[in-house]
């Protein structure tokens, strides 16, 4: 069975958790897109949907879901979002789609957060997936040196690399500097850190946040309340 089928199962199961009248955070990525489609198909009354990216906003708008913003709807009942890795205690790596900052803002404003993923995302140790780190473009190479120092302090030898767009995507972008770089919805850059294994995610999260120029990182710790994992047989539910 394909990963996409597992993602669809998880997304559809998550859509059943939404009730009429809720304010719902809409995640970003291919798994979250299945959730958004399944949610729209339910046609629930009085929903308010807060998207975590321009891409999700566009999808939700096309499907007729009522959109709001975090400014207008600062208290979210339930956010449903994908992940790049789901580790022990529902510690997550997110940001493969460069949406980590808006995602984290929406997650932290949510009474409940539900992560949805295919079975391959579940890992024993975080870090095989390169950790995305969102960095201000101004002086980003200096910031990258500081990130490298922090990574080295965590026994991660390889410096993080700035994420570049595919040639097609790059040609679609207009940026004042580095048109080849992926830009987040907020106009920042993404550095990806190939960690291999993150032995102390909480300490790494704290250390990265202390670097001037780092806007956010993709470690989502103590934020997910539950995970719905799509499998070949159905879905598995995980709690922290
Ligand atoms: O920035 C993107 C998000 O964190 C996504 O939720 C994450 O990358 C998972 O994406 P997908 O469901 O496409 O694997």
TrEMBL record:
Broad EC category: isomerase
Gene Ontology BP term (one): pentose-phosphate shunt, non-oxidative branch
Any single Pfam family the record assigns to this protein: Rib_5-P_isom_A
MF-aspect GO terms: ribose-5-phosphate isomerase activity
UniProt EC number: 5.3.1.6
Catalysed reaction equations from the record: aldehydo-D-ribose 5-phosphate = D-ribulose 5-phosphate
Residues the entry annotates as binding substrate: 28-31, 81-84, 94-97, 121
Domain of life: Bacteria
Transmembrane segments: none
Active site: 103 (proton acceptor)
Keywords for this protein: Isomerase
InterPro entries, sorted: NagB/RpiA_transferase-like (IPR037171), Ribose-5P_isomerase (IPR050262), Ribose5P_isomerase_typA_subgr (IPR020672), Ribose5P_isomerase_type_A (IPR004788)
Pathway entry: Carbohydrate degradation; pentose phosphate pathway; D-ribose 5-phosphate from D-ribulose 5-phosphate (non-oxidative stage): step 1/1
Role according to the record: Catalyzes the reversible conversion of ribose-5-phosphate to ribulose 5-phosphate.
Record-stated family: Belongs to the ribose 5-phosphate isomerase family.
Subunit structure as annotated in this protein's UniProt entry: Homodimer.
HAMAP family: Rib_5P_isom_A
Protein name from the UniProt record: Ribose-5-phosphate isomerase A
Designated gene of the protein: rpiA
